[in-house]
Design a protein that fits this description.
The complex is a heterodimer of chains A (105) and B (551). With 105 residues, chain A is of the alpha+beta class. Chain A has one domain. Chain A has a 5-stranded antiparallel sheet with strand order 3-2-1-4-5, sandwiched between helices. Chain A is globular and about 45 Å long. The termini of chain A are far apart. The relative contact order of chain B is 0.10. Chain B folds into 4 domains: 104 residues, Sulfite Reductase Hemoprotein, domain 2, CATH 3.90.480; 165 residues, Sulfite Reductase Hemoprotein, domain 1, CATH 3.30.413; 91 residues, Sulfite Reductase Hemoprotein, domain 2 (Alpha-Beta Complex), CATH 3.90.480.20; 137 residues, Sulfite Reductase Hemoprotein, domain 1 (2-Layer Sandwich). Chain B starts with 5 loop residues before the first helix and ends with a helix. With 551 residues, chain B is α+β, with helices and mostly antiparallel strands. In chain B, helix 6 packs across helix 8 and helix 10 packs across helix 11. Chain B has 18 helices and 20 strands. Classes of the chains: A alpha+beta (105), B alpha+beta (551). Bound molecules: iron/sulfur cluster.
């Protein structure tokens, strides 16, 4: 049985990199660190969104639906999967959306 | 090429400094995103899915070797080692960091470039024929007029907040290679009864959600009056263009809703008032600008080239010459298109190393000049035919020698959902798969000229409406689907493709294109009848039938 949950994602101000609201309340690169919010956690989620927004370090914060399947987190929209995993037709062999010097967190 | 004067230098420098200050204030938290967004967009800085994207203007697609080298340097130093050349003859960097952007703008200003007016509801970079100033069929070199339009439209105080963006294209040749009828204003060289050259003005063309073919509003506007005429159109648009609905705000909708005659009456009234005034271009000014575009000092070179001999000796080279060279007006010369569409590549992408090689080769073989074509290739406009072999060897070494210009694999594709925040579906993987499917040069030759154009959403940056075969990515219930259109044409015989049927999955697209191609090959009257000509003769029916059966 797969559970549908929310994650909170944004783009980081300095690099534009994709970031997620993590379990520790901080912003992280990488979907694996994203905190999952169940339907009972909406108020807490919204408070954290407001806090993240107030930090001024992110742009365009969004809530996205994910499914938890076989231990992995799968965003429901293809757009979100591409945001999480980088371009599906990357230029060259390496992922460009990850790590230094791209992400400034 | 045009060289900045003191005003241009001062203006671009001041804008860069202003933006540096804005970025600093944004990073320091003194500006929030709502305040900063319009400022960054005015300087060509977008936020895409994974990063910022900087769109740099390449005025009418013309670049010097020095400028190309600087673009390579920027790609290498501030970005991820490549850039994407677009259908608007610009370049986009996909991974710049916000704090580096002022430094990038400094680098650009150092070679007389900038990113101003590459976004926003203003007059965008004017585009033209990539073979301008070189093509054998050209009536007049459009670049001086393009430059004059650039100067007039740069931070024009009245036209900085138009109802919507505004694009002007210009061609000096009767064979339109600049898709002028699909721009807000399209200018085409024309002659009057006295044999003088002026401009036929089309208005209200465009692609996007509501594709329209531009309508002829005036068959002949003399050089001297052109700015006054353009300003008159812009005034009418600025006054009556719809600001209540973004999807109805382009001039094409105004022309469509009000009718061409009503718009013409308004424009002519404005023009009556404006003509002979401050916007009249004196011949001395025209001559001054034209002097920047004098042809290079061509040498007397051999004009003979035996393609048959080359075909036996080096088929890849012969193919390159056959497909990628274009008739030059100077005997002994050709314009060469360097394909940015290798098998399995992303259309329009070039690495920093390739940009450097292109700069070197332009310096060596093309008087230091390059062009970006709206079909996302690079043109070396003035190459001596006797240098073609050496040029080809240089391109081979850089992976730039694909001899496929005009063929089915010379596709246009926008960045799509791999990068673009507005996308519904991916474009690049579709193009890559098609390029693999049709990689065989013999097959390409058998098929002949065929233009495939792919957009990742209805904004149509990938010009799918005017593809002989157009592919439009849409989203349905969370999956990507692709609508196939047929019969579009961006040339002077402008037409908009029609949708053949329900959307297909990405996996079905290559097969569908094969089906359309096979249908054409079976039905063509002769090998000389091109895909688009056959479609004109046969209509949609046989293609629709082949793809969807009789449902
Ligand atoms: S056509 Fe759509 S998906 Fe493609 S670049 Fe333009 S806005 Fe983005």
């Amino acid at each position: 049985m797969k559970a549908e949950l929310d994650i909170v994602t944004a783009n980081e101000l300095l690099s534009g990199a994709v970031v997620y609201l993590g379990r520790d309340g901080a912003l992280h690169a990488g979907l694996a660190a994203a905190r999952l919010f169940g339907p009972d956690k909406t108020a807490e989620r919204d408070a954290l969104i407001a806090k993240a927004r107030a930090s001024g370090r992110i742009v365009g914060i969004e809530t996205e639906k994910v499914a938890v399947e076989a231990g992995g987190v799968l965003p429901q929209r293809l757009r979100e999967r591409i945001r999480a995993n980088g371009p599906t037709a990357p230029y060259g062999p390496e992922r460009q959306d990850l790590g230094a010097p791209h992400v400034s967190l | 090429m045009y060289r900045y004067d003191e005003f241009d230098h001062g203006f671009v420098k001041a804008r860069t400094e202003e933006f540096r200050d804005q970025v600093e204030r944004r990073v320091a938290g003194q500006l929030n995103e709502d305040q900063f967004r319009p400022l960054r967009l005015m300087n060509g800085l977008y936020l895409q899915l994974h990063a910022y994207m900087l769109r740099v203007a390449i005025p009418y697609g013309t670049l010097s070797a020095t400028q190309m080298r600087r673009l390579a340097h920027i790609a290498r130093t501030y970005d991820r080692g490549y850039g994407h050349f677009t259908t608007r003859q610009n370049i986009q960097f996909n991974w710049p960091r916000l704090k580096d952007v002022p430094a990038i703008l400094d680098e650009l200003a150092g070679v007389e470039m900038h990113a101003i007016q590459t976004s926003g509801n203003c007059i965008r970079n004017v585009t033209t024929d990539a073979f301008a100033g070189a093509a054998a069929d050209e009536v007049i070199d459009p670049r001086p007029v393009a430059e004059i339009i650039r100067q007039w439209s740069s931070v024009h105080p009245e036209f900085t907040y138009l109802p919507r963006k505004f694009k002007i294209a210009i061609t000096g040749a009767p064979n339109d290679r600049a898709a002028v009828k699909f721009h807000d204003i399209g200018l085409m060289a024309s002659a009057n009864a006295q044999g003088e050259i002026g401009w036929a003005v089309h208005v209200g063309g465009g692609m996007g959600r509501t594709p329209m073919i531009g309508k002829l509003i005036n068959g002949f506007v003399p050089h001297a009056d052109l700015l006054a005429y353009l300003e008159s159109i812009l005034r009418v648009y600025n006054r009556y263009g719809r600001r209540d609905n973004k999807y109805k705000a382009r001039v094409k909708i105004l022309v469509h809703e009000e009718g061409l005659d009503a718009i013409r009456d308004q424009v002519e009234a404005e023009f009556e008032a404006a003509r002979g005034g401050v916007l009249t271009l004196p011949q001395t000014e025209l001559d001054r600008i034209a002097a920047y575009f004098v042809p290079p000092e061509f040498a007397e070179v051999a004009t003979e080239f035996d393609l048959e001999v080359e075909r036996r000796r080096d088929p890849a080279f012969a193919r390159f010459v056959e497909n990628n060279s274009f008739p030059h007006r100077q005997p002994g010369y050709a314009s060469v298109t360097v394909s940015l569409k290798p098998v399995g590549g992303a259309p329009g992408d070039a690495s920093a190393e390739q940009m450097d090689v292109l700069a070197d080769l332009a310096k060596k073989y093309s008087f230091g000049e390059l062009r970006v074509s709206h079909e996302q290739n690079i043109v070396l406009p003035h190459v001596a035919i006797s240098d073609l072999r050496d040029l080809h060897a240089g391109l081979v070494a850089a992976g730039l020698a694909t001899g496929n210009i005009g063929s089915i694999t010379d596709m246009i594709a926008c960045p799509g959902l791999d990068y673009c925040a507005l996308a519904n579906a991916r474009s690049i993987p579709v193009a890559q798969e098609l390029s693999r499917r049709f990689a065989d040069p013999a097959r390409q030759k058998q098929i002949g000229p065929l233009k495939i154009k792919i957009s990742g959403c209805i904004n149509a940056c990938g010009h799918h409406h005017v593809g002989h075969i157009g592919i439009l990515g849409v989203e349905k219930k969370g999956t990507e689907l692709y609508q196939i259109t047929i019969g579009g044409d961006a040339t002077e015989q402008a037409s908009i493709g029609t949708i053949l049927g329900p959307g297909l999955s990405a996996e079905q697209v290559p097969g569908a294109v094969e089906t359309l191609v096979d249908t054409y090959l079976l039905a063509r009257a002769s090998p000389e009848e091109s895909f688009i000509a056959a479609h004109r003769r046969l209509g949609d029916a046989p293609f629709k039938e082949a793809l969807y059966g009789s449902r």
